[in-house]
Amino acid sequence: MLLKTVKPKTLLEKIFALTISIFFFSFLAFYFGTAFLLKESIESNFKKKSKAETELLVSYISSLIKNYNYTTIYTVVSQTIKEDPDIVGVRVKEFSSSLVDITNLDGLKECKDTLLEPCYYVVKSTIKYSVPIEVEVFFSTENLVRLITFIRKVLVSMVLVLFILSEFAILLTMKSANRLLNEIVEAIDNWKSGEVEKLKGKRWSPELTKLVSKVVEMYEELLEERKIDYKLLLFTEEVLNTLPLSRNEEEFVKKIIPPLKTLFNFKEVKLCSSKECRGEHLLAITPELKLILIDGNVPETVLKTLKNIISGALNVIRQRKEKEELLLGAVKALANAIDATSSWTRGHSEKVAEISVEIGKALGLPEEALEKLRLGALLHDIGKLGIPPEIINKPGKLTPEEYEEVKEHAIWGYRILKPVKAFEDIIPMVLYHHERCDGSGYPEGLKCSQIPLLAKIVAVADVIEAMTVERPYKKPHPLEEVLEYLKREAGKKFSPEVVEATVEKAEEIRRIIERNGRGGGI
Q: What dihedral angle (degrees, nearest 10) is formed by the CA atoms of 485, 486, 492, 495?
């Protein structure tokens, strides 16, 4: 079209006019073609990046809310906005109430049809909790616009270079332009498909080297961030799995040291108290506990995140311990109230509980089972509350009718505790502590293999306590006689393995009996 308009006469004029025509149409095709490709790829990656960062932030906020660590949410959101230049605001709402609202939109309007102008892009997510919590993260496209503007300028500059070169050798220029265009398209295709290794491994034209280097650098930074985020998610999973298995803070910290060391490539991770820590890079978990981190290449922000994760878990352990101590105190008070129903049973339940725990230790029971055993033994006679006081306090031997009524205390104990979910694991001890291996016990006449182990332990401890104390109608038996009686009845009334463990703990049981004084059960 341009040749027909200017009607060049000389070869130079024809070459010049042809060059301008080629430049003009190449420029249009080049500019709009690459602009379209850049728009599609960059917008798509920007949205994916925004969604991924929102999911990570929402995941962490969700873990804080589940651990009731609301005060840390504001700090986490502030730190996230500070570290990510694209994030200009975060809102965390519960119904219409705002838990956190940090926004600095600086007059930006919400993005509509395109991200290729200064605006903010909103990603919303809902945390499905007892009360739904909505999280809105605002991403500014200003850096994106600047990047695309920069790329466009670079592309225009390269086209101009092609035009100047075409003045000297149109064929060479056309060939060079075609090669350069193919390289750009290839680079964009590689970037869109995630094959960044091809970008790094190829020798690029001088015009593209800087641009490709920048793209590779951006991608590697994003990839490294994702690797760290993934490691944090794996570590959080390890923490959540370890939490229910840990009885105290120190035990929990010791269990998470191996995954902490492996995931974040520390040469060594050691636990120390405040007085023992000297001259190493320290991560303070509590005022008493610190971790020594040796030869690790972890950013400070990641260390702070690790500290928050561990501290949150330790807070859960502390709260759980407080609740367990509160429950144990309430159970002890209830046991004392039960024992107080008779003048000669004071302290009986606590003594049975201590003897039971010693037998449990000899049997190698884990700490969790020992705690259940302690609670069950403390409440084994709670069913006495359903027996008439005149029978409980009768100074002489019971009649057959009275004894049958007393036997109902095991069932009464079951009825009292059954509605309380916290006591569901100890109900078998309360219900079956008078069952015997030969089936002569009550209330169901179970055989040895049918009786739960913890109930067998409480049964032996109950007999020891009852036989070694004085009653209005009998003298106390020495512990040696009681042990001989148990050994004679092993396999008949009592579990052989429990009796064997009892004999092993004879001295400890003797100290419990002598320390606690009078008692006695039914």
A: 180
Distance CA 261, CA 291 (A): 11
Give a yes or no: residue 522 inside a domain.
Answer: no
Q: Which pLDDT does position 45 carry in this prediction?
A: 84
Q: Residue 447 pairs with which residues in a beta bridge?
A: 438
Query: What's the pTM value of the predicted model, to 2 decimals?
Result: 0.45
For residue 231, is it within any domain? yes
- Overall domain count for the chain: 3
User: Residue 149 falls within a domain, yes or no?
Assistant: yes
Residue showing tokens 């995941």: 59
Q: Which domain holds residue 425?
A: 340-516
CB 408 within 8 A of CB 387: yes
What are the structure tokens assigned to 522, written together? 């039914």
pLDDT tens-digit map of 335-393: 566 655 555 455 788 889 999 999 999 999 998 899 899 888 888 888 887 778 777 77
d(CA 277, CA 269): 12
Provide φ and ψ at 509, rounded to 5°: -65, -40
Q: Give the range among 36-45, 202-211, 460-469 with minimum mean pLDDT.
A: 202-211
